[in-house]
Design goal:
The protein is an all-alpha fold. It is built from 23 helices and two strands. About 45% of the residues are buried.
Length: about 525
Amino acid sequence: METFASWPFVPLVALAVPSTLSLTAVASPRRAGLASGAALALALLFTLGAARGGAWTGATSNLGVRVDASTCIMLLLVTALGVVIVRFSRTYLHGDVGLVRYFRWLLLTLSAVTALVVANNLLVMALAWTATSFALHQLLTFYGDRPTAIVAAHKKFLVSRLADGCLVVSLALVHANVGSFDLERIAAWATARPDLPFSMEIAAVFLVIAVALRSAQLPFHGWITQVMEAPTPVSALLHAGVVNIGGFLLIRLAPWIALAVPAQLLLVTLGLLSATVAALVMTTRVSVKVALAWSTCAQMGFMLVQCGLGLWPLALLHLVAHSLYKAHAFLSAGSAVDDWKVKALTTKRPPISGLRLGTAVLAAVGCVFIGMTVVPPQIGLAPLDQPYDLVLGLLLGLSLVPLLATGAAADARGVTRVLAVAILYFGWHALAEYVVPSRVEASSPFGWCLAGLGFVGLFAVKSAVHLRPNGRFARSLHPWLFSGLYLDELFTRLTFRVWPPRLPQAVKPVLRATQVPATLEVQA
């Protein structure tokens, strides 16, 4: 059988994807549909070539391109989303005078993302990540006469520049220790040492901070909930393809991050705080797109927790699933009114009682643990009976409680549905284990205990609110959640005093008419 080395066109095909998108953006942005389709076709060809060359059983690199299953999956994901978003944008912005400018920056954003995906060099990935930020900024400010759009985009610009500074520090420390930015050399250098030097642990911490900043983690999350003035396809691109990049970067650097205990604990802490707070705040939002934005903040926090716990295959699976879900959710947000009408006309279920909730918890957790015992041996995996697996099973069971609590408590149909979802989850888990080639140790027990207590606490708070929505606890908690704990207001006041946004003179009266706080006053 031919080896991968006999397939030299595979790295060239990968490089052709961002090249096609960027060249079309410069030369003929009106042909965005053709360029996105060609990029998807090239991604399919790259995947076939990589599979033929044996990249599904190991990683290799040539011409600065990393060829493995993760690259194939992410490249297919980004290019497929690109095709859908470009097609939707053509209809959504039909007749808009800025359509050509919009397609130019959309293609450049997709080009930067695909360049990051295929790169085998940490410096190239960092540069592509920064290029993605600058290109996306032009899309977020597509309507330059809308003050709220300019202010929100400016907040994201500030957060991204803070992330750039952290990346520079991390890259400098990595090169000083390893002497290279090559991903394979970084992994080999890290795994060859029983303990990381202090400087490399600091580099990992700065990298985690950069990822948290660009993943809209608290308290730097305000921009992602306020960029809704941009066209809806831009929101779909942001939430489905751009905000996930940090998680993919961590997956690429798993052999190094898995040895940096401070970085792992920071990932768990930041991700857990963002996931729990954002999940609670999301329940107070009435706007569909804003609720989806808070959901993205929570989901990114959960993905960081997975990375901090060493669950790299699950982090990749979560990244793909979240991208597909959020792209569909934003592009179908226009049907929210029709969905609300359908729900309003249907018979409302009685409120959830404590007995119903308790029965649902026991049934859901029981179904998950049955699935953990039966399914893995049937698909060639070891039984999930380790303490870490038990914590993961408990969290999965709690996440499935709503499937039972909102219907007849633990009836046969509901139990069957929960058991089917658990079996499907473990099947996808096995597939993710096969796809991600890295095999690194899980996090320390402290991280698992922290994550378990955090998510159990989140379930307890949400259950208390649902059981007694008009109770004293729910009424006292609602104002804080509705305001997002005032975290974004504090961040805005501090940063805008140092670097306020610049708006055209004609827009200033409009900004003042919106009664924006004094801290959002802009300079001439």
